[in-house]
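Sequence only, no structure available. Ideas?
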Amino acid sequence: MSSADEIKQFAEKYGIKNSSLIKTGAYINGEWIYPESSEIFAVTDPANEQHLLNVVNTPIELIESAIKDAEISFQSFKKDTSGRQRSILLKKLYDLVVENLDDLAIIATLENGKALADSKGEIKYGSSFFEWFAEEAPRVYGDNIPSADTSRRIITYKQPVGVVGILTPWNFPHAMITRKFGAAAAAGCTTIVKPATETPLSALALAELIHQAGFPKGVFNIVPVDQERTRVVGKLFCESPLIKKISFTGSTQVGKLLMGYSAESLKKLSFELGGNAPFIVFDDADLDKAVAGAIGCKLRQSGQTCVCANRLYVQEGIYDEFAKKLTSEIKKLKLGHGLLPDTTHGPLIHDRAVAKVQSQIKDATSKGASILTGGEVEKELGPYFHQLTVLSNVTHEMNVSHEETFGPLVPLIKFKTEEEVLKLANDTPYGLAGYFFTNDYAKVFRVGEQLNCGMIGANSGAITEAALPFGGIGWSGMGREGSKYGVADYINIKSIVIGGI
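Reply:
I predicted one. Tokens follow.
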């Protein structure tokens, strides 16, 4: 772990006002744990590969103990707190996050690489789930259902499922935890979180605020681990009989593994997995709005979000004009370190992400695609800075038409008819998000109903907010986060039949 002096220097160097947010240990049963014999792993800035801090690589035996602590805490948390009391805790936590927004954004930018404006947006978005679920917590209640037998009554109760194992990715190190923990806490569940190895500092800062908000011991536990131990912890969470639900955001490949690990204990599962989002621009669309929507949707965080547009289908009548306008606007954007004031887009997270973008460009150009802008790695900025790239003349045979990119690569695919583009858009096992632009409102309903996606933006490239039931279908996962449905995956419905009335 980093020393107190190193943490102080870190805070001063980057202008972090509340240095109490900088934690490098594990948070278990209401205490910060720094095992003397523990291994550590380094957190680095992807923009320049500079070392930031060392974080504890939580020992497996300590994680097993944390699971037991979470189970003990659950027995009292579900019984001794009302929905209103949990609401008060979540609202206090919301206020604390808002108070520390600037510091939390700096931490996210340093370990994730995204532009500071994007990080501030994430913190605001993430905090909104605490506010939302603070309002939902007092409303988790059942029904009185009339029986067919007039001498009986059916009463239903909504009860928390138990300890929840939470596994989160690096691309939204703050919001992916808040969206899950907010719902879990509202329901009365306790949690144990394994954050992404690349971005543990944001998660640990959030743990400190949860501590300050006054949540009971054991309600929130966080166990940072390195990449090698991550695989062990995922399997441990799934196989532990004390953990009753897994909430995971990540790749479809890993989701399938976790589902297999969970089979023996038959846990509740909610998975937000990979995507391959279509973005369709019809001839009758407002071009300026469509271009702005494409840039915001496809290139947010340099294309490293699960709901990013992946395949851009443009109708032939406006294809050339759209390509020209899009390319012109993209050229105005600026790569750089996320803390620099003029930066709009930061680096990719690691060399594997860069290699995937490069491989898709190479494949596409070898099959006839043309590069309208970008195409290279900006090595003078750093090894993970990839130029924002637009490809034209992309066809269905190219890898970029089938594989999720997770990078700043915009492939433009020409289509003729609505029937053709719907067939192309739905030709994927994934179904997380989809987008389309048109001024024909009959088409809004028609296309929206036929796209095989869990979430769709019609004339909007931005869809995410706390009120949205976030989630996909098919290989993009199961369950919904946020919205009035968000608590459902964290509860069991119990029915009591009362006779002799």
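The CA atoms of residues 423 and 451 lie 9 Å apart.
Hope that gets you unstuck.
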